[in-house]
Specification:
Blueprint: E1 2-7, H1 15-29, E2 33-38, H2 63-72, H3 78-89, E3 92-98, H4 106-115, E4 145-151, H5 168-181, E5 186-187, E6 191-193, H6 201-216
Parallel strand pairs: 1-2, 1-3, 3-4, 4-5, 4-6
Helix pairs in contact: 1-6
């Protein structure tokens, strides 16, 4: 297995740093190849601008079109091209980050904004009476798997259906479904650690064992059963879920998960 770890935390000695290091050592010891994109150590540029596209940037800037033109011409900046090549190399991608303000850190979102360009992560495939592009289960990154490893400061009870912060699956849906599944990546159930501001050595030992177990079962873990866009579940071109496919009483994001 070839695994890319995309790591987003500014402190190497943080819990996130320890989990990243443990992932590297666990996977390499199991015979897997591992590459790491340590975004803070790389001084990753987190904002999209005309400099990303060189001579292919228009005035006014049109991010989608210009990023696709630069990709097609092989003119994206070297840092972006390197990350795209890592994604194409990998068969598994692990994202290690803290949940800040209910989402990923800005530097990681900036990685997505710059790396997931037009004609790479979106804007691919045919548009016809039966297909609406290759996305949500199809696309450039199909055949790969991803796992979110997320640390959360709050207690687990706060991130449930009746918890004040809402279900963690809902908070992660925009990342898992909207960013990862969109270009075709199958998404594994997330690894979430709660109450991490109160992490003791004893709790960390238990968490480390659980993390090692998740890492060693990446290849056998069933992905989240998101519905494929072009499988017949959705009407085209409205992209509405067909009537009668939803389980009784299910609403919201859960409509887009089978079973």
């Amino acid at each position: 297995m070839k695994t890319l770890i995309v790591y987003a935390h500014p402190e190497p000695k943080s819990l996130n740093g320890s989990l990243k290091d443990l992932a590297v050592s666990t996977l390499e010891s199991a015979g897997h190849e591992v590459r790491v994109s340590d975004l803070y150590a790389m001084n990753w540029k987190a904002v999209v601008d005309a400099a990303d596209y060189g001579d292919h940037a228009s005035t006014p800037l049109r991010v989608a079109r210009d990023s696709g033109r630069a990709l097609d011409a092989g003119a994206l900046t070297p840092d972006v091209r390197a990350e795209q090549e890592k994604l194409l190399w990998a068969d598994t991608v692990v994202f290690q980050f803290p949940l800040w303000w209910y989402t990923m850190p800005a530097i990681l979102k900036g990685w997505v904004d710059r790396v997931f360009t037009f004609h790479f992560a979106y804007g691919v495939g045919e548009h016809s009476d039966t297909k609406y592009g290759e996305r949500y289960g199809e696309g450039t990154l199909a055949g790969r798997r991803a796992l979110l490893s997320v640390t959360v400061g709050g207690l687990e009870a706060h991130y449930t259906a009746r918890g004040i912060n809402g279900p963690v699956d809902d908070l992660l849906f925009p990342i898992q479904h909207g960013i990862l599944y969109y270009p075709g990546i199958e998404v594994l159930p997330p690894f979430v650690l709660y109450g991490t501001d109160r992490m003791t050595d004893e709790r960390y030992a238990d968490a480390a064992k659980a993390w090692e177990q998740r890492l060693l079962t990446l290849e056998s873990t069933e992905p989240i059963a998101f519905r494929r866009q072009n499988s017949g579940d959705y009407e085209i071109p409205s992209l509405h879920l067909r009537e009668g496919l939803e389980p009784a009483g299910r609403t919201g994001f859960g409509l887009h998960v089978r079973g």
